[in-house]
Amino acid sequence: MNNLIIVTGGTKGIGRAIIEKFAANGFDIVTCSRNENDLLELKKTIEAKHAVKVFVRPTDMSMKDDVVNFTRFVQGLQRPVDVLVNNAGYFVPGDISTEDDGVLESMINANLYSAYHTTRGLVQGMRERRSGYIFNLCSIASIKAYPNGGSYAISKFALLGFSKCLREELKFFNIRVTAVMPGATLTASWAGVDLPEERFIKPEDVADTLYSAYSLSERSVVEEIIIRPQLGDL
């Protein structure tokens, strides 16, 4: 039986690139997003291209009940989870003092609580098997405050803290935890920006780096990955 990877928010950008990379290496896939049509397109494309199984479920990762139902869907497959990638999240620019009321709560729900509840729903099986790998897609905003980062930066700082705590809890169960902090990556979040492609990281570079970290022996873990555009932050 193939290994199994769970990627939240997997239909576009970095999530899609991660799915492509792991599917090319024989992993079956479970993923989710809010758009069912995008999920069905991904399932059809990946299964035809890589001859693996893809399981999908429409899910709003900013809603706790949806996240819990997604983890129950995964549990219902009765398959061991080898890799979990907490990738779901989104970005709204703004300043803390002037952004709309409720933005912080929305960002925390989507960017932090989604990872928290997904991990809690799936990690018990990893603990019992004493095996597994968890990647949390943080951001350069997790380590560097910048103007117009607002509540997004707050949520990503918190996600890095979550990753550090999780690593300390799980290392005794042989579960590896990596915080991934990409800089500006060429995804839909940057749509419409008048900047050349070479100023951005390729999503595939992030995916390749995750797979390289996963491929190390279980005696080693890459605790944090920082990937920035060669020409510097935007």
From TrEMBL:
Domain of life: Bacteria
Pfam families assigned: adh_short (PF00106)
PROSITE patterns: ADH_SHORT
Matches recorded under Gene3D superfamilies: NAD(P)-binding Rossmann-like Domain
Keywords tagged on the record: Oxidoreductase
CDD domains assigned: SDR_c
Molecular function GO terms recorded: oxidoreductase activity
SUPFAM superfamilies membership: NAD(P)-binding Rossmann-fold domains
PANTHER family assigned to the protein according to its UniProt record, in alphabetical order: ALCOHOL DEHYDROGENASE
Family: Belongs to the short-chain dehydrogenases/reductases (SDR) family.
Protein name as it appears in the record: Short-chain dehydrogenase
